[in-house]
Amino acid sequence: MSETKQLKNNETKKLSTSKTKTLPKETTKKLTQSKTRAKKIKHSYQVKDAENALLLKLKDGDVVIEMYPDAAPNHVARIKELVRSGFYNGLKFHRVIDGFMAQTGCPYGNGTGGSGKKLKAEFNRIPHQRGTVSMARSMLPDSADSQFFICFADCPWLNGQYTVWGEVTSGMEYVDMIKKGNGANGEVSNPDEIISLSVIADI
Questions:
Q1: Global pTM?
Q2: What is the tally of structural domains in the chain?
Q3: Burial of 196 from C-beta contacts in 10 A (0-12 / 13-18 / 19+)
Q4: Which residues pair with 52 in a beta bridge?
């Protein structure tokens, strides 16, 4: 049996550098996850319809939102369009009221902006409960754009007044950890952000 050859110092140095570091970013991204692995991850969320489900990544963990295309088809279609364009990635939870809701979706981070496309209201009979995802709007019914909120608790006074388009089906404990606001009307200083928002079918 031959003895194992000991490497010299200059040889061990050569082994320390990974070859993938010199590859273009596009190539290294492809190396990080196989199709089989991606499929396993997608199925691990156990959603009814991956095309109408979102993965919301927050600082404390992953949140799954299942959408209601039958109850709010235009809102769901628009949300998916914005999600797929990367619109929500990095946006702040600018208005968060403990025991009520966490609101996000403003590109300016202060509640004054949107994507530039107003949506006709699709008020429905789905109640505002803990985990409900609903559209924010102004006093005008048909003014919803990109901003939405997630309810921390049941909010029956909102029923029929705002378009409900989804529900948190897992990870609500991470929504609870979103930084709360101390300012007027729930304004948050140094607010938490959406790390990323994806359609689960695309993962």
A1: 0.80
A2: 1
A3: middle
A4: none
